[in-house]
Specification:
The protein is of the alpha+beta class. The longest helix has 21 residues. About 17% of the residues have low confidence.
Length: 174
C-alpha cells in the first residue's frame, strides 16, 4: 500500500513538473530577421512584441552574429535615449544570446554597437507573472536584471527534479 501511495505522489509531482515546463516559451526575437538593425526601424520590434504574450520564465532568444551586434537590458530612460551608461546586467556580446525573463513588468533591450539602437535595434516587452495575467499597465523604475546565458534556472531545476523523480520510480521496481 505504501508503495502504491508513493507511486501516486511521484506521478502527481511529475505531472505538475511537465505542466510547469510546458508553460515556458522560447521567443525568437524578430522571428526570421533575428536581432539586427531592422529596415523598418523601431516599429519592427514593436510590432513583433505586440503579437506575443511574455510570461516570467520565458526565454528571449536574440539571434545575432558575434561581433556585429550585442544585447543588454537597460532602464526605460536608457532605452528611450539609447544611452548605455546605466545597463542592467552585463552586455552579452556572443550570439546567439538567451535571456530568461525573471520578473513581471517591463523589460528593455538594446544593441549598444554604433548607432544600432538609434536605428531601431531595441525591444520593449511587458511580461506577466503567469500565463493569461495582464502585464503591468505602466512602467515605473528599472526592472531587476534578468538571468542571462544559455540555461535558465527553471530548466535546470526541472531537470534536477525530473532525474530525482525518475530515480525514485526506478528504485521501486528494482
Amino acid at each position: 500500500m505504501a508503495r502504491l501511495m508513493s507511486m501516486a505522489v511521484i506521478g502527481v509531482v511529475m505531472a505538475a513538473m511537465m505542466h510547469y515546463s510546458a508553460a515556458q516559451t522560447v521567443h525568437e526575437v524578430g522571428d526570421t530577421i533575428g536581432w539586427t538593425v531592422p529596415t523598418g526601424g523601431a516599429a519592427t520590434y514593436t510590432s513583433w512584441a505586440a503579437g506575443k504574450q511574455f510570461v516570467v520564465g520565458d526565454t528571449l532568444a536574440f539571434n545575432f552574429v558575434t561581433g556585429n551586434h550585442d544585447v543588454v537590458e537597460v532602464s526605460k530612460e536608457s532605452f528611450d535615449a539609447c544611452d548605455f551608461s546605466s545597463n542592467i546586467g552585463n552586455i552579452i556580446t556572443t550570439g546567439p544570446a538567451n535571456i530568461t525573463i525573471t520578473t513581471a513588468g517591463y523589460h528593455y533591450y538594446v544593441c549598444t554597437i554604433g548607432r544600432h539602437c538609434a536605428a531601431g535595434q531595441k525591444l520593449e516587452i511587458s511580461a506577466s507573472a503567469t500565463p493569461g495575467a495582464s502585464p503591468p499597465s505602466s512602467s515605473t523604475g528599472s526592472p531587476p536584471p534578468s538571468s542571462q546565458g544559455g540555461d535558465s534556472s527553471s530548466s535546470t531545476l526541472f531537470a534536477s527534479v525530473f532525474v530525482s523523480s525518475m530515480s525514485l520510480v526506478v528504485s521501486f521496481f528494482l
